[in-house]
Amino acid sequence: RRPAPSHTPRPRPPSGGKPIPTDLRRDEAALRREVALEDDSTAVPRASADDEYGRAAERDPKVLVTTSRDPSSRLTAFSKEVRLVIPNATRVNRGGQVVADLVSSARAHDFTDIVVLHEHRGEPDGLVVCHLPHGPTVSFGVHNAVLRHDLGAKKTVGTLSEAAPHLVFDGFTTALGTRVKTVLTHLFPPPKPDAKRVITFANRADHVSVRHHTFAAPRGPASAALTEVGPRFELRLYQIKLGTLDNAAAEDEWALRAYVRSAKKSKLAEEGGVGPADFRMAARAAAPRKRKGREE
User: Fold this and answer.
1) Which residue in 185, 173, 201 sits closest to 266, CA to CA?
2) Greatest distance between any 2 Cα atoms in the chain
3) How many CB atoms lie under 10 A from the CB of residue 50?
4) Other CB atoms closer than 10 Å to residue 118's CB: what's the count?
5) Positive or negative, the Cα torsion across 173, 178, 183, 189?
6) Alpha-carbon distance 165 to 275, whole Å?
7) Angle formed at CA 181 by CA 180 and CA 182, multiple of 5 degrees
């Protein structure tokens, strides 16, 4: 009689379940090692937006505030007020530093973000937020900047507390809006429940109004009163890059295309909201129409 052919038994998992399929036998050891190394932060695939800020909540942010080179007196004053608005921020005179030296110095001193302010003819017109160590870099246009001393006398405006503020976001409902909200949120440490500062980011037709208030309620919630302490300005998002400020070859995650038809649509909020076009249509409908020299 011929001996029965010998064969290797199919491997079974330690749990005693079904045999491992043939096409996975070669990768069995690598797959077991990969599963053993997984933890809560790596078991689920994450987007780049999650990875960049995945551990940002483990410590308070440390922000470096600076300006473009050779700033005017108004831009310098604006940078000082931005430094007061953001807790744990440090303002540095730019001097002759190039961007690469600025970013490497910020990394060496363990800063989490860089805020760079720009101007045009003495008026602030740009704000760039660069998250360290790997990005992203978000660029905003700045419009209608009003400094604290422009709001009124010091007795009217009041002193500026440096406690961590409460943040209010309104109109950031799309994926891009959530991305911008994440970038702005991680500039500020978590506030204490009894904090009296409020910073509002209100999106209207992709223009983000930034307002800074203090509030007091001497006789309970019904007596709450807001006092604007400034500064106030409008932000207009126009670019998000996946790298840091010194990486000129970084990929664009999003950029404003002003001459594309879809540029008129809202980017930071869902469609269907009330925008300037709705107000114009309502005004036309309500306006009296002229007919043969007379108003209807």
Assistant:
1) 173
2) 118
3) 12
4) 16
5) positive
6) 29
7) 90
pTM to 2 decimals?
0.75
Q: Among candidates 62, 38, 42, which has minimal Cα distance to 50? A: 42
Q: Residue 275 in 3-state DSSP?
A: coil
Please answer whether residues 184 and 208 qualify as being in contact, where contact means their C-beta atoms are separated by less than 8 angstroms.
no
181-232 pLDDT per residue, tens: 999 999 999 999 989 999 999 999 899 999 999 988 888 888 888 888 989 9
Parallel, antiparallel, or unpaired: how do β-strands 63-67 and 89-91 relate? parallel
Residues 180, 253: contact at Cβ < 8 Å?
A: no
Q: Could you tell me if residue 99 is left (phi over 0), alpha (psi between -120 and 50 degrees) or otherwise beta?
A: alpha
CA angle 226/232/235 to nearest 5° reads 125
DSSP conformation class of 114? E
**Burial zone of 294 (CB within 10 Å; 0-12 exposed, 13-18 middle, 19+ buried):** exposed
Q: Is the peptide bond before 136 cis (omega within 30 degrees of 0)?
A: yes
Q: What is the pLDDT of residues 81-115, one digit of tens each?
A: 999 999 999 999 999 999 999 999 999 999 999 99
